[in-house]
Specification:
This protein is an alpha/beta fold. It contains six helices and ten strands. A hairpin with a 2-residue loop joins strand 4 and strand 5. 23% of the residues are buried.
């Protein structure tokens, strides 16, 4: 079993867990838990594992892995953009109508430079979107962050800390704008409720009437939008 499902052991872990992510399985177990106990747990969850593997692999097969070459599809706020990679003496990245043009230099790493330029473009555009959002956010609202920024997360859309600072993954802006808005509101609500209690969700509902649809969208597409090997999603339900 361990050859098929890798086991990650940790002295800090107190219980066993199974993660199915990107069409792969990882078993996490306490450092001293006997192998037979780990195997028995996995065997009991085998049907659950296989179902999630089938579902995830079916989704991944609908998309092409990203090679960062001209002709690939990207998205900005859900709207399709076509990546165009070209060479010149200076690096840049700009949107021209429905094309996102990444200009690399002749000595650039062809597998890395377009990706880095596109990521930087998304971070800049996303920061501008956030600045505009909070500029229009009524000052009378009790939910007022101390700061907001754009970074990169591999497994979450955004983060709020107890200092009132918000940070979001640049990958979020591949999603439709109504989904982006809901994620920002979600993190804003953590300024008051630093949890996911029923009080938290009532607070979210007070600011957004379509948050449940947004949560469903995020659950459905997070596996490929957050994954830099894909950075895309299938429009089909």
């Amino acid at each position: 079993m361990s050859a098929i499902y890798p086991i990650q052991r940790s002295p800090r872990r107190r219980s066993i867990a199974i993660k199915v992510r990107d069409g792969e399985v990882l078993v996490q177990a306490p450092q001293k838990m006997p192998d037979r106990q780990v195997y028995a747990f996995v065997q009991a969850k085998q049907a659950w594992i296989e179902r999630h593997l089938r579902e995830q692999r079916a989704v991944l097969q609908q998309l092409n892995k990203r090679a960062w070459q001209s002709g690939e599809r990207l998205r900005w706020l859900g709207e399709p953009l076509q990546l165009e990679v070209q060479q010149a003496s200076r690096k840049s990245c700009e949107r021209i109508v429905q094309n996102l043009v990444a200009t690399v230099t002749p000595r650039s790493n062809p597998a890395k430079e377009p990706r880095d330029l596109v990521r930087k473009w998304y971070q800049q555009q996303a920061q501008q979107w956030l600045d505009d959002f909070f500029r229009a956010w009524p000052s009378a609202h009790e939910l007022q962050p101390k700061s907001w920024s754009v970074g990169s997360f591999s497994s979450k859309w955004g983060h709020c800390n107890r200092r009132g600072e918000l940070k979001f993954s640049w990958k979020l802006w591949l999603a439709p704008e109504w989904v982006v808005r809901n994620v920002v509101i979600h993190e804003l609500c953590h300024l008051r409720e630093f949890n996911h209690s029923s009080r938290f969700w009532r607070l979210v509902a007070g600011y957004s009437n379509d948050y449940q649809q947004a949560e469903q969208w995020l659950r459905q597409h997070g596996m490929t939008v957050l994954n830099e090997a894909y950075l895309d999603y299938n429009d089909a339900p």
